[in-house]
Design a protein that fits this description.
CATH class of the largest domain: Alpha Beta
Structural class: alpha/beta
Largest sheet: 6 strands, parallel
CATH superfamily of the largest domain: Glycogen Phosphorylase B
Oligomer: single chain
Order of helices and strands: EHHEHEHEHHEHEEHEHEHEHEHEHHH
CATH topology of the largest domain: Rossmann fold
Strand content: 15-25%
Number of helices: 15
Radius of gyration: 22 Å
Strand order of the largest sheet: 2-1-3-4-5-6
Helix content: 40-55%
Distance between the termini: 22 Å
CATH architecture of the largest domain: 3-Layer(aba) Sandwich
Shape: globular
Number of domains: 2
Number of strands: 12
Length: about 375
């Protein structure tokens, strides 16, 4: 068999699905991953009805098994959350190991440690530890997160690879943010664990002192319950709901925002924060997961579930245009140097080469050259 026939199978959510995991893989592909490595993507999940989920998981398993039996799979790179996602990916990776493939478990879920510690039986915890130990690399989103997972399995081989973000060129940043209203952008699912209810309480106080402040909530979730809380707080004329946004709608909101806020209870490294940094928007976020490491000097941290610290951080930025501008510039530079797609793809390639797949990269480049000459 010629080495050029081999490829890497990447497994994850349907690329049309909402959420950070799909956004990451779409950034890989849009940034040229397939031009550097022979990758075939396999969708194993979509946020739809149970039968649809079972169908996609089963179809992905059959397709993977067919490719493995062809002898052409060099590695399997599985993107995983906690809970059912982990157990599905554990199955795929276990089969791949039996065929002698390199295996990469890429964990995106900031609640993974809490899920392991609080929701699993001793037998299930042992299965998690065995999986972390057996794969060639456990990919995490920050060094802080790697340290947390080492407590679970110190014998695992960890690689910290940042989430990628598209950094707009300077010409896209020339637009002037309107002085009023001062816009606070929340861009995540409207779930309690994202800190939405603490944000509403903090915003009620902020907007009382600064009536020209507007909170824009962009995301799906429990909209009815959130709207009810908005009405109870009497801030319905200062809160706008956009639903889940992407593309041009997301660009418009990022370009107009004065502050990006995400007061989650737990996270990995949220793509929304990286997008705000890339657009020069100062960030207020809870000090959980890999947020502090990723954000650096691009924003202010608050404590999860702490309304007062969240309110203070928002007011500090909104009342100081100089501070906001400094934080925004810091975030933009940090996004360019660390989170740009090309930078992250270079780190991904280094991991693949370190796992023994360098010849695969070389043959892929040769195949492209031969194709262009033909």
């Amino acid at each position: 068999m010629r080495r050029s026939e081999q490829f890497i199978v990447m497994i994850g959510n349907d690329l049309r699905a909402l959420g950070g995991m799909s956004a990451v893989v779409n950034s890989y592909i849009g940034g040229g991953l397939n031009g550097q490595w022979p990758v075939r993507y396999l969708s194993s999940f979509h946020h739809k009805k149970t039968l649809n989920k079972l169908w996609m998981a089963g179809r992905a398993f059959v397709q993977l098994l067919f490719w493995l039996m062809s002898g052409k799979v060099a590695a399997v790179h599985a993107h995983s959350a906690a809970r059912g996602s982990f157990w599905r990916k554990r199955t795929y990776l276990g089969v791949a190991r039996r065929f002698g493939c390199k295996t990469f478990l890429h964990i995106h879920d900031g609640s993974f440690v809490q899920w392991y510690e609080k929701s699993l039986s001793p037998a299930s915890q042992a299965a998690v530890r065995e999986t972390l130990k057996s794969v060639d690399r456990v990919v995490v989103l920050s060094e802080v997160w790697a340290d947390q997972l080492r407590v679970i399995q110190p014998m695992a081989n960890f690689s910290a690879i940042d989430n990628p973000v598209a950094v707009p060129d300077a010409s896209q940043l020339n637009c002037q943010r309107a002085a009023s209203p001062r816009r606070i952008l929340f861009m995540a699912r409207l779930w309690p664990q994202k800190g939405i209810y603490e944000l509403l309480e903090a915003f009620a106080s902020v907007s009382s002192a600064m009536p020209d402040t507007l909170l824009v909530c962009a995301g799906d979730g429990d909209l009815q319950a959130v709207r009810l809380r908005v009405e109870q707080l009497g801030i319905q004329d200062r809160v706008e709901f956009r639903g889940w946004i992407d593309g041009a709608a997301k660009v418009c909101e990022l370009a107009a925002a004065h502050v990006f806020v995400l007061p989650s209870y737990y996270e990995g490294v949220p793509v929304g924060i990286l997008e705000a940094m890339a657009w020069g928007v100062p960030v207020v976020a809870s000090d959980v997961g890999g947020i502090a490491e990723a954000m650096g000097d691009a924003g202010l941290l608050c404590q999860a579930k702490d309304v007062e610290s969240l309110q203070a951080a928002l007011e500090r930025i909104l009342c100081s245009p100089e501070l906001a501008a400094t934080l925004g510039r810091n975030g933009r530079r940090r996004a360019e140097c660390r989170f740009a797609v090309s930078v992250v793809l270079a780190a991904l390639g280094a991991m693949y080469r370190g796992a023994g797949l360098a010849k695969l990269e070389k043959s892929n480049q040769q195949s492209q050259e031969e194709t262009s000459k033909g």
